[in-house]
């Protein structure tokens, strides 16, 4: 049986066992349900190829095809549906998720820690996320902001796409708390007394108040 978001507008029919989400912004691990904001696009993850012709695209493309990855059927409101296959990051057990972007018509896909952003109405417009590998994703509804983090960097996406991306530690980044106006976390600091130091970022500007590595603000 398929998993759905809790809202009625997201209850679309499909035979596969994946999340069907029409959300903005919303984060749901693949194969699990969640609640969302009920806006476009509709993005069911398909475990089978369609019975009628639908454009099939690879991210990234390699010649006429591409690498194995998460298959995702996208049904934009203003364009024809298409199926994308997003190449795995080959981390092994890495994060996989589908997240609607605050930027209209754009979508984030995390495939085994490899992140992508794609324009659902014009899928030729796409990019890999600057965080490699994606280890954490946070959606801050109050500021219409989606955060991605790897081992050293935190990047924020808003209504116009990538807003900022900052290095905040030397390694092993961990976001510990999201406050009203702050992102709090810790990371490896080779110069610190305990090898881990705290960092702070302002919301929504992304300004680094305090970094957990020697060359950043203290």
What do you see in this structure?
The chain has 218 residues and is mainly beta. The chain folds into 2 domains: 1-128, no CATH class; 131-218. 0% of the residues lie in helices and 44% in strands. The protein has no helices and 20 strands. The chain has strands spanning 3-4, 19-20, 26-29, 55-59, 61-62, 65-66, 69-74, 82-87, 97-100, 106-111, 114-119, 126-128, 136-140, 145-149, 153-158, 161-167, 171-178, 182-188, 196-202, 208-210. The strands form 6 sheets. The chain has a 5-stranded antiparallel sheet with strand order 3-9-10-11-12, with no helix packed on it. It is elongated, with a radius of gyration of 18 Å. Mean pLDDT is 79; it is low at 1-42.
Question: How does the SSE layout of this entry go?
Answer:
Blueprint: E1 3-4, E2 19-20, E3 26-29, E4 55-59, E5 61-62, E6 65-66, E7 69-74, E8 82-87, E9 97-100, E10 106-111, E11 114-119, E12 126-128, E13 136-140, E14 145-149, E15 153-158, E16 161-167, E17 171-178, E18 182-188, E19 196-202, E20 208-210
Parallel strand pairs: 1-2, 4-8
Antiparallel strand pairs: 3-9, 5-6, 7-8, 9-10, 10-11, 11-12, 13-14, 14-15, 15-16, 17-18, 18-19, 19-20
